[in-house]
């Protein structure tokens, strides 16, 4: 049977000292899509614009980084890596020509890494293989190595609620496996029968997302089944298959931009084992700055009630906080999916309000 899912590790070397903006993941994402576009524009368009779940995940760069002057500094002649997973047989087949002629370098913000090699990180298998090899009495332990979050009622939900976790896996399963599962009955079973046996979690704010920040969690969770679960053996089989799929598909949303990186097994320690200290500091600092500015702008309004006022103040805060980090207004407007002139107006109002408060103080 042909491969339908696979995980790859790309190993890089910085050719010179490299400086990257906080939101460099957008550049890595764009590099990958441009690579595919060069030989298969239709496949690239599907990866970028296709309806439903994205058939790939992409991790952040992993390796030695320093946080200086609101940018990442990557020393020369250092090793880095990132992970790419593919969730669709046709996508894997369509990318074979690229794998056979991989580029010798990777360019981010006009700065180059040498692409040393690409290795298998997760074996290339078929979806049917996921249902084999699991002990139905064994706890399912998963670790979340990058901030993980879900969308719930229009907001971010940074907790590994079993229903949310397995719903995110089931969406990918239904889109790509070819074995369609009725959603609500299975999720009802998850809610009734899947327990959190133990966990070690910490929350962190990250710069991914259109609104400048996402609150997510990192850490480890052990899921267990209640006695009632064994009334539905088919669901138990699917439960373990989805757990086995987790490192391939990632968990939650924004997985093509580095969120929700998931691994099998339990990883203990502190948050620094999951995020470098500089990443934790920068991301939490940005989130705190946005919260601080939002409260400031709200306090200056005559009418502070209502969701619209909060949204306006939050958008102003996001733009000003990211401008303080040195991002261009055009890049921010593109990320927030708003016209440049609108972003410019928000930026001017935010700067004026901040200046007025400074003068008052």
TrEMBL record:
<dbReference type="InterPro" id="IPR019267">
    <property type="entry name" value="CRISPR-assoc_Cas6_C"/>
</dbReference>
<protein>
    <submittedName>
        <fullName>CRISPR-associated endoribonuclease Cas6</fullName>
    </submittedName>
</protein>
<dbReference type="Pfam" id="PF10040">
    <property type="entry name" value="CRISPR_Cas6"/>
</dbReference>
<dbReference type="InterPro" id="IPR010156">
    <property type="entry name" value="CRISPR-assoc_prot_Cas6"/>
</dbReference>
<dbReference type="Pfam" id="PF19308">
    <property type="entry name" value="CRISPR_Cas6_N"/>
</dbReference>
<keyword id="KW-0051">Antiviral defense</keyword>
<feature type="domain" description="CRISPR-associated protein Cas6 C-terminal">
    <location>
        <begin position="142"/>
        <end position="262"/>
    </location>
</feature>
<keyword id="KW-0540">Nuclease</keyword>
<keyword id="KW-0378">Hydrolase</keyword>
<keyword id="KW-0255">Endonuclease</keyword>
<feature type="domain" description="CRISPR-associated protein Cas6-like N-terminal">
    <location>
        <begin position="18"/>
        <end position="63"/>
    </location>
</feature>
<dbReference type="InterPro" id="IPR045747">
    <property type="entry name" value="CRISPR-assoc_prot_Cas6_N_sf"/>
</dbReference>
<dbReference type="InterPro" id="IPR045648">
    <property type="entry name" value="CRISPR-assoc_Cas6-like_N"/>
</dbReference>
């Amino acid at each position: 049977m042909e491969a339908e899912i696979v995980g790859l590790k790309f190993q890089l070397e910085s050719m010179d000292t490299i400086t990257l903006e906080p939101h460099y993941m957008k550049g890595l994402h764009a590099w990958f899509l441009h690579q595919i576009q060069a030989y298969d524009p239709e496949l690239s368009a599907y990866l970028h614009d296709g309806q439903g779940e994205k058939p790939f995940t992409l991790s952040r760069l992993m390796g030695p980084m320093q946080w200086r002057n609101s940018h990442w500094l990557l020393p020369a002649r250092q090793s880095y890596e990132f992970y790419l997973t593919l969730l669709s047989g046709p996508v894997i087949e369509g990318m074979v020509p690229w794998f056979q002629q991989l580029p010798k370098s990777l360019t981010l913000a006009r700065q180059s890494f040498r692409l040393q090699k690409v290795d298998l990180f997760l074996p290339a298998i078929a979806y049917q293989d996921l249902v084999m090899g699991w002990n139905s009495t064994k706890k399912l332990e998963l670790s979340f190595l990058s901030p993980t979050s879900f969308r719930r009622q229009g907001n971010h939900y940074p907790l590994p609620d079993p229903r949310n976790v397995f719903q995110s896996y089931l969406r990918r399963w239904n889109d790509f496996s070819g074995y369609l599962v009725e959603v609500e009955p299975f999720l009802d079973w998850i809610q009734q029968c899947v327990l959190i046996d133990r966990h070690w979690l910490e929350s962190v704010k990250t710069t991914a997302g259109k609104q400048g920040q996402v609150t997510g969690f990192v850490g480890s969770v052990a899921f267990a089944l209640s006695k009632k679960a064994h009334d539905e053996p088919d669901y138990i089989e699917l439960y373990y298959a989805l757990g086995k799929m987790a490192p391939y598909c990632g968990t939650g949303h924004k997985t093509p931009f580095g969120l929700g990186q998931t691994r099998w097994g339990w990883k203990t320690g502190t948050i620094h084992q999951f995020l470098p200290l500089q990443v934790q500091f920068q991301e939490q600092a940005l989130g705190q700055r946005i919260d601080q500015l939002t409260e400031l702008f709200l306090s200056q309004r005559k009418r502070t009630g209502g969701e619209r006022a909060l949204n306006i103040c939050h958008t102003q805060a996001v733009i000003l906080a990211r401008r303080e980090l040195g991002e261009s207004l055009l890049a921010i407007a593109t990320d927030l999916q708003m016209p440049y002139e609108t972003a410019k107006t928000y930026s001017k109002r935010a700067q004026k309000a901040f200046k007025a408060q400074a003068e008052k103080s």
